[in-house]
Each structure stands twice: as structure tokens, then as C-alpha cells.
Design a protein that fits this description.
The chain has 276 residues and is α/β, with parallel strands linked by helices. It folds into two domains: 6-72, no CATH class; 91-272, Aromatic compound dioxygenase (Protocatechuate 3,4-Dioxygenase, subunit A, Sandwich), CATH 2.60.130.10. The chain has helices at residues 6-15, 23-43, 47-63, 70-77, 80-88, 198-205, and strands spanning 126-135, 145-149, 170-174, 180-186, 191-192, 211-212, 215-221, 228-234, 253-254, 264-267, 270-272. The strands form three sheets. The chain has a five-stranded mixed β-sheet with strand order 3-2-7-8-9, with no helix packed on it. Strands 1, 4, 10 and 11 form a four-stranded mixed β-sheet that branches. Strands 5-6 form a two-stranded antiparallel ribbon. A hairpin with a 6-residue loop joins β7 (215-221) and β8 (228-234).
Amino acid sequence: MADIDLSALTEEVVSRFDSTPDARLRRVMQALVRHLHAFARDVELTEAEWFKAIEFLTATGQTCTPTRQEFILLSDVLGLSMLTVGLNGSKPAGCTEPTVFGPFYVADAPAYGDGEDVANGAPGTPCTVRGTVRSRDGAPIANARIEVWQADDEGQYDVQKQGLEHAQARGVLHSRHDGGFHFRTIVAEPYPIPTDGPVGTLLGHTRRSPWRPAHLHFRISAPGYQTLVTHVFRAGDEHLGTDPVFGVRESLIAEWPRQADGSHRLDFDFVLNPDA
């Protein structure tokens, strides 16, 4: 077929994927074509707008580095990250709810022993974090890998700082034989997501707030259990209702009470779901 009528173009493009050997890839690509074409028709997309979108996606890719994932940030602010978490992360009652991964995870964070200070010089008010890792039946999970990371009092993650020679406010710990864990860090504070890239430009044009409520990231894994990626949020934060990445869950909001010495404390227990 040399000339393809515009009304038949979508199904012609879809048919070009009919011979894709991988059934899942075939389904995804054909659905993607249908939805993209429907979107273009719905908004009557102009060529200038199409080219501007290509520029935006190009700039998004060019902003990505080994320590900053602008495409994840874009997915976050569009709600796609949280939708994917919801579609794939449904857990039985009693399990800790997952939330978005975020763009500043680092796989090779330094290891710390129980009770050590993962802040490692990051500016902020001292905070002690305690909790347990357990299964749905209440049994303690020993030696669970607990990865934590957070922004500092200046609203930045260590990987955003130029010239910083060591990790700060991030680390890897393991639960004790009784499932408990304990580490020292700094109080989580609200901060704006990066606005110096294409995603920040998008938020500015659409008058959306970039401010995330204060939170501490956790990634907890153990053999025989589903890996949990989640946050713990500070109760009372003014940005809980307007999180730009839609990651807040009521069950993940906790008190961080001030102690007599001026520091804070967070107590939070995690419940993992057994691997299917």
C-alpha cells in the first residue's frame, strides 16, 4: 500500500507489528501506537507542537546522568510512576505500602553497622531512627538489607552537590536477628524537586508546585520476600496534599517527635510481603 488514508493510518502502523515474536512486546507496541495516535487526534497536534515535544524529550535525555534520572522525574510528575507502583505493588492488608522510587537512588551506597550515623556530615538536625522488619505473620526478618537515603537540611541529596567526595545521608544497613534496626541521621525536611531541567520548566509553565513533603527513603529486601521501595513522611508537613510526584500514602505518615536534647526520633516498623 503506497498511499495510506489518514483514517486508516493507525491500524496500518499497528499491523506492522503483527509479526513481532514476543507477544508482550507486540501488545505493548500496538497499544502504544493506538494511544499515541488517539492523543494526537484528540488535541489536534500541530507540527510545531510535535517538534517542541521532541526537543523536550531530547533535553530530558541530555539532562540524565549516572546520579540524576530526569526521565524518572518526568514519569513522577506525570503520575505514571505512582500508577505503575499501584498496578504492580498491590499488597495484602498489613503490609507496608510502596511508593515511588525517585531519581536519586544510588546502588553502591556505603555500608553502616547498627546504630551508626549515616548522615556522615550532612547538615541538619540530628535524628534517631528505629524500627523492625517483619513478615505478615509477625515473624522477625533477620539480615534484611535496608537502604536509606534522603535530602539534607539544604534540600539537596549528596549526588546533587559539586565536589562532595563521600556519600552523605545515605547508606546500607541490615536488620538484627530480632528484625530490629537502628541508625542515626538528620531530620527530613521538605524540598523542591530539581527545577533546573526540562521537568522544572514544565512545572513552571503549568504553575505546579515543585515542593515535596519531608520524607526518608527506604528500600528493603530479603530472600523470600518482595522488595519494598517506600518513604516515611513527616506528619504535619504543609506539602503532604500537593506532593508533585503523588507519592504520599496515609499509612506512611509518621510523627518525628523532638527529644529533650533537641534531636528528633522516628519509630517505624516495616512489614514485607512473601515472594510469590
